[in-house]
Amino acid sequence: MPYHFASRMEKTPKSFIREILKTTERPEVISFAGGLPSPALFAVEELAAAAQDVMAEAGRAALQYSTTEGYLPLREFIAGRYRRRLGLAIDPDEILITNGSQQCLDLIGKVLLDPGDPLLIERPGYLGAIQAFSLYEPAFRSVPLIDDGPDTACLEAMLEEAPAKLFYGVPSSQNPSGITYSAEKRRAVAALLAGTGTIFVEDDAYGELRFDGESLPSLKSYLPDATIITGSFSKIVTPGLRLGWIAAPGEIMEQITVAKQASDLHSNYLAQRIIARYLETNDIDAHIARITDAYQAQRDLMIAMIEEEFPDGVSYTRPDGGMFLWVTLPEGCPTTQLLEEALRQNVAFVPGRAFYVDGGGDTAMRLNFSNADEEKIVVGMRRLGAAVRRFIG
Amino acid sequence: MPYHFASRMEKTPKSFIREILKTTERPEVISFAGGLPSPALFAVEELAAAAQDVMAEAGRAALQYSTTEGYLPLREFIAGRYRRRLGLAIDPDEILITNGSQQCLDLIGKVLLDPGDPLLIERPGYLGAIQAFSLYEPAFRSVPLIDDGPDTACLEAMLEEAPAKLFYGVPSSQNPSGITYSAEKRRAVAALLAGTGTIFVEDDAYGELRFDGESLPSLKSYLPDATIITGSFSKIVTPGLRLGWIAAPGEIMEQITVAKQASDLHSNYLAQRIIARYLETNDIDAHIARITDAYQAQRDLMIAMIEEEFPDGVSYTRPDGGMFLWVTLPEGCPTTQLLEEALRQNVAFVPGRAFYVDGGGDTAMRLNFSNADEEKIVVGMRRLGAAVRRFIG
Q1: If you measure CA to CA, which chain A residue comes closest to B57?
Q2: Domain boundaries along the sequence of chain A
Q3: A194-223 tens-digit pLDDT
Q4: Closest chain B residue to A48 measured between Cα atoms?
Q5: Rounded CA separation A367/A381 (Å)
Q6: What confidence score (pLDDT) does residue A26 get?
Q7: Which residues in chain A are contacts of B226 at CB distance < 8 A?
Q8: Which fold has domain A7-43+286-392?
Q9: Measured between CB atoms, which of A55, A241, A266 is closest to B44?
Q10: What residues contact B324, with CB distance under 8 A and at least 6 apart?
Q11: Which of A349, A379, B89, B119 has the fewest CB atoms in 10 Å of its CB?
Q12: First and final CA of chain B: distance in angstroms?
């Protein structure tokens, strides 16, 4: 029979990365495409011990239905860490546990976006956010990213033209570009948004994965009532447990809670207890330091390989944290076509175009440096360099 | 600052049950309000062993990101069980693992409902479905439930008047009424829907919790291309792991997969592996038999207590499975007001009105018989009987 799908489905970009990831399931492919953390760094034994403790001490409770907001000791941990790390005063009641930070975007869209609402997003912008928000049919408007954050002259002009409902951004080690907003840029963006009614959605998935320099202030320190932060255990503990969180002012949180209950009642409760126990009984700062040391070395190696293997005229970002860097090839080298050649060479990346809501990024690519080990980075970047040289001819 | 929420939030019923559940957190309250399974029947040791096995044998894989569709061996198990239990031919590729079956409703709404689309729901209907679908702003139309399922004369008239996009129903041990559609009723409903373009959403959360009689055919056996089934491990294994599934024809599943990826990428992968291992290494049929034996005894006890403690003029359903029964008090005994008296007596239930999209159920209540043990059922029903008698005066 013919099916009639909701019109919102027509506005959702095809699931480009999922299709790529399928191709890269072939074991011979070295993939810089996904956004996966390094599995070598997972604290498998410690998490297994935490799971065993929870089941032994509170099994029946951990297996039962629980509250929509999430496990209170876990929310208290998150609030305490914001206080210590960023000096932010966030009450545990302003935090709700989600199924990974991707779900934060769905809940924010559900609660705040009517069709046609103007939504600002970085250019290039995070593909997962484009997908999540698309289902709520906003009018996307993109703010160019330059070296140290959004182009504020452009942002100012856009806000003068029309107010925006939301501005979604990734101020620290942005996905896909690897760019971090400077301290000055954070203040300037906040000053432009203040009083406009725009809510800044600060995706802080990579804030803890910082290699160089100290933590920079959250936009929430300038816009306490107009910032929603999304966070994630995926990059610092494990993505397989799908645990993230949303921190929002109380009035927004009331609506988020209603939407969360309607969407799936609550997040996996056993997983929340396991992570809470793991965080109580392990030194998360030491664990994060191990991760950032490894990723920094992998970033350095990937950049060295670009210098060695790629032709002249290639430019790239030098991320001070996170998992991605952004490479721009010379004119006339479209990366969607390059990808076909690269896959023939058994190496994968994400073409830049996927990160633009309004076209662009044709000669750019996103490279992930967290998932592949050093040997794979060397071999994979040689293959990719060869593909680029061949393509440029 | 003033926040401007999406208009869909205004159409969502206040989270009535969540508010009640909060009241019932006082330990002295005996609650027949929630829809919780009996924690005494959780297979805590077996699930702990499964968790340990998975972490030991495949920890790094289980902690990594995974596919949107879900863990293939788990989807194969579900497909195999449909084949054996109901004679249904469902391919594992037509099954996607969700965060509990509540998420199925969100995904179905997202993929299929435009604002104003006519949606049929049973009267009374499942509150969680009303909440989930409300966010997609359909035009609810309610089909009265009578003893053996929907009133087909009424359904026929409604379908003649205007076609419906979806018909959401719970054919086996319905929530809230406890009613099961008879075999004849299933055929008759399917015959009325055939060729109208209406998709039947068969919520089968309780199909395995059947006390009396054999399993009845799924609507999908009559309407293979026009039925979506939602299922859950919450009632037969554990709700705390939030694992359910959706079974839908391939063309619908493609859209569901896009929506699932945008909503939260994928369901908790470690939990999927734990449940799959548990199902491989334990006899789930024997476990389900223990659950149904216990719930049947609890249902019998609750009915005996109604007979003993409630005044004349009270009627009730006699569910042949599931977790709920439905009590109707005499005229002039509104259960929203009765609830206040009941809470003073430290006993809770859900007033009938919560289950009506168009008013009604004023003198009805839903009672859960699965969560409280026998002693609590005796004490709680005495308190509730006293509250009813006092209220009627």
Answers
A1: A44
A2: 7-43+286-392, 44-281
A3: 999 999 999 999 999 999 888 899 999 999
A4: B55
A5: 10
A6: 84
A7: 1
A8: Aspartate Aminotransferase, domain 1 (3.90.1150)
A9: A55
A10: B35, B173, B175, B176, B177, B178, B366, B367, B368, B369
A11: B89
A12: 50
- If pLDDT is split at 50, 70 and 90, which confidence band does B177 have? very high
Of all helices (H) and strands (E), which one includes residue B202? strand B199-203
Residue A392 has a pLDDT of 84
Nearest-by-Cβ selection for A99 from B39, B48, B264: B264
- Interface contact B265-A136, CB threshold 8 A: no
Judged against a pLDDT cut of 90, whether residue B26 lies above it is answered with no
Taking the C-alpha atoms of residue B275 and residue B346, their distance in angstroms, rounded to an integer, is: 36
Which CATH entry fits the domain spanning A44-281: 3.40.640.10, 3.40.50.150, 3.30.830.10, 1.10.1040.50?
3.40.640.10
Question: What three-state secondary structure class fits B30?
Answer: strand
Write the class of the CATH domain B8-43+286-392. alpha beta
Partners of A226 on chain B (C-beta within 8 Å) are 1
The residue of chain A nearest to residue B59, with distances taken between CA atoms, is A44
Of residues B36, B103, B106, nearest to A65 (C-beta)? B36
- Contact indicator for B258, B240 with CB cutoff of 8 Å: no
Q: What is the pLDDT of residue B237?
A: 98
Q: What is the pLDDT of residue B353?
A: 94
Say which of A136, A199, A270 has its CB closest to residue B240.
Answer: A270
DSSP letter assigned to residue B138: -
Two domains, one topology: A7-43+286-392 and A44-281: no
pLDDT value of position A391 = 85
Give residue A16's pLDDT.
63
Decide if A113 and B6 are in contact by the 8 Å CB cutoff.
Answer: yes
CB contact under 8 A, A48 and B59: yes
Q: Report how far residue A208's alpha carbon sits from residue A176's, in angstroms, rounded to the nearest whole number.
A: 17
CB–CB contact A1 B128 (8 Å): no
Spans of chain A below 50 pLDDT: none
* CA dihedral sign of residues A285, A290, A291, A295: positive
B162-173: average pLDDT: 97
| 3-state SS track over chain A | CCCCCCHHHHHCCCCHHHHHHHHCCCCCCEECCCCCCCHHHCCHHHHHHHHHHHHHHHHHHHCCCCCCCCCHHHHHHHHHHHHHHHCCCCCHHHEEEEEHHHHHHHHHHHHHCCCCCEEEEEECCCHHHHHHHHCCCCEEEEEEEECCEECHHHHHHHHHHCCCCEEEECCCCCCCCCCCCCHHHHHHHHHHHCCCCCEEEEECCCCCCECCCCCCCCHHHCCCCCEEEEEECCCCCCCCCCEEEEECCHHHHHHHHHHHHHHHCCCCHHHHHHHHHHHHHCCHHHHHHHHHHHHHHHHHHHHHHHHHHCCCCCEECCCCECCEEEEECCCCCCHHHHHHHHHHCCEECEEHHHHCCCCCCCCEEEEECCCCCHHHHHHHHHHHHHHHHHHHC
Whether B15 sits inside 8 A of A258 (CB atoms) is: yes
